[in-house]
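Could someone model beta-D-glucopyranose with this protein?
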Amino acid sequence: MTRADAVLTERLRSLSLEQKVRLLTGADFWSLRPEPAIGLRRLVVSDGPAGVRGERWDERDPSANVPSPTALSATWDEDRVERIGRLLAAEARAKAVDVLLAPTVNLHRSAYGGRHFECFSEDPLLTARIGAAYVRGLQGGGVGATVKHFVANDSETDRFNVDVEVDERALRELYLPPFEAIVRAGVWAVMAAYNSVNGTTMTEHPMLREILEQEWGFDGVVMSDWFAARSTEPAANAGLDLVMPGPGGPWGDRLVAAVREGRVPEDVVDDKVLRLLRLAARVGALDGVEPAPPTAGPWPQDRVAAELRAGAAAGFVLARNTDVDGAPALPLDRTALRRVAVLGPNAEVARTLGGGSATVFPPYTVSPLQGLRAALGPGVRVDAGRGVRSGDRVPVASAALLRHPGTGEPGLEMRFLAADGRVLGREHRTNAAPTWLGTFMPGLPVADVTAVEAHARLHSPEAGTWVVGASGLGRIRLTVAGRVAHDGRVELPPGADPVEGMMRPPQRSVTVDLQAGQEAPVVLRYEPESGGGFGDAEIAMVTFQLNLDRQASDDEELDQAEALAREADAAVVVVGTTEEVESEGFDRDALALPGRQDELVGRVAAANPRTIVVVNAGAPVLLPWLERVAAVLLTWFPGQEFGNALTDVLVGDAEPGGRLPVTWPADEHPAIPSTRPVDGTLAYDESIHVGHRAYERAGVEPAFWFGHGLGYTGWEYLDAQVTPDGAGGATVRARVRNRGPRAGREVVQVYASRADSAVERPARWLAGFTCVDAGPGEEVTVDVAVPARAFAHWDTGSQGWRTEPGTVRLAVGRSCADLPLQAELTLPGQGSGSARPPA
Ligand code: BGC
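Reply:
Sure, complex below.
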């Protein structure tokens, strides 16, 4: 036992069984119980990963919105991601958050995965290295990371109950390695997933003890995903340490009884408490124990903005850049521009993040239109047009079109009502999609509230017809201009995910005609279902939306956009998804851009040969017009500085530094696995052939291969040599030259393959990578480390890692399909028969 553990064990010994067990279930939605008797203060946890939301789901409590994980991994830049981790640590401290519920390291097994934007990559090595960098940054600033969701929670459909059937090699070689790397790097917490793996639910799975603890030496806390703990004895004995959220759940008195009756050994409880105290000590929540690293201090706002602006640009992937004459269309020459058309549904509204628990409320967002207008200045005429709506749903009402009924300020008034109609509390909000998780207002008992009402005056700046809608689960009454537009109960289909109910609840709408300057009172009365369908009735789980849009026809807007494009020197079309399409809680049914966005791009491209398409989506969407446009820039969900970063890249002040962390499909091909369980089981039949490996195996050409990204300069790959590193791995030394006219950054990628293998293998797999900077014409030599694990496979017979003797080919280049250099290495072979990695 270490000295630090001896101190913690002494404190633990002074607690009664009841006191110990009390610590093992959350106090509420986002915090853990204090225990003053041993100097333990309350600990606060918060989502993650695109920012630190804090304890409130509330736009009045904003958080820096960093690029979403696909955008971070597209940088392939561990130093940058570590710095963003540091920034998140500072954010967490400013919000009194001790532990962030991030990073998410499930894989992009299928492009249909709804939570794709929240995971890093299809590749385990890239995920592991970017995830570990994120954790280093965060924990280096004294804030705990929670790597999630352990394991095989790679899609959302039926995620609470689905049984993932996955073979041992796929588990060991794809799905576990990111967790393993991050645990070995010293992460302080792991979140056990909702799903089952091969028949056992993850909060009770033997992998918690046998793999996490015994093989990898994890000494931190295993917490349940929210409401994922289902049992007392099996979960406690299996190695779950903390039930979240609280105060209900299957432990408490039942766990005390299980210990008293000898069904759960008290040592098992002690071990959980020790782990919890270790976490508390690390984050500085235990009196008299210095936190592991010093606590991060606040960052000035301009430093946050600069980091997020550069970070977003570094993840943008320039996928295509060829205008009609075969010349690069980007960067735009701003001195030659007189008129630019900025079009598309995501041009005016920046989509900076995806939906679900990853939601944060940025203090501001810069839309593409705002960014371009600000940077191009008065000398360039910027015409804007939405072109088409981004989907069929009526969007959440913008506060700018609503007036508080009392003060006339932009926004709405929320009223919390008792059963007798008394108003128990009021608040002024600008978010017309409010959510309350845990509590409504400080000091207002959840049980006293029977209804929440949103009151506002809809302000019509010009004459027109408006569509007013209400969305939510429960009983909803919508009154517009004194007329009851809807009154009734709205329910999700049986078995649907509660988060789906939050992100895209069923919608009801009406139209109203208003004159210029006219206002119409709107009241949305919402009566929650008891318990909200998610967990405990003591916890508020309320969410609804007031929706609003001008009634417009896509046809008219399309004509307008086309006309603007025709008149412009260049057309920038920003298409994409929204948090209603890409979210936790549900998967995607289709990969096409929602609504009529493809038609918009096609018409704009026909009208203007210099059409630049910006794809603002967290995951791949189909690009049927690809060959008809001059440039395609993939920006992911890039965080609050979106528009500024975009402008930097479009005018060439910054390079689009990203490389694809995922293979970009050309169509809805069967090489993309389904996320739909059959009879409760989701079979990972493709085994180790995920992402580019599946395309290579099927002989199918995607739109863009894994690793692809053009940047603004060109690179020549001169030669490569490989030498064993003495530890079972190798170093690939490559010489590359920047043959373009400007400085740039290249991601040098190394892929391994084995021609004559007795073991089933992918065609090739990522074995190492590194980033390199070079000035124009400069030649640089770069060493890429390839770890021993890259050469090993999981041997199911001996239950260990094994390296097959023989020749391995290492190919070096710019993507998995553009590999100009080759080198070979002869491996002596090694089989440990143990679960330890060979290096
Ligand atoms: C999500 C987790 C999240 C938790 C708390 C769950 O539904 O799966 O990723 O951390 O909620 O918001």
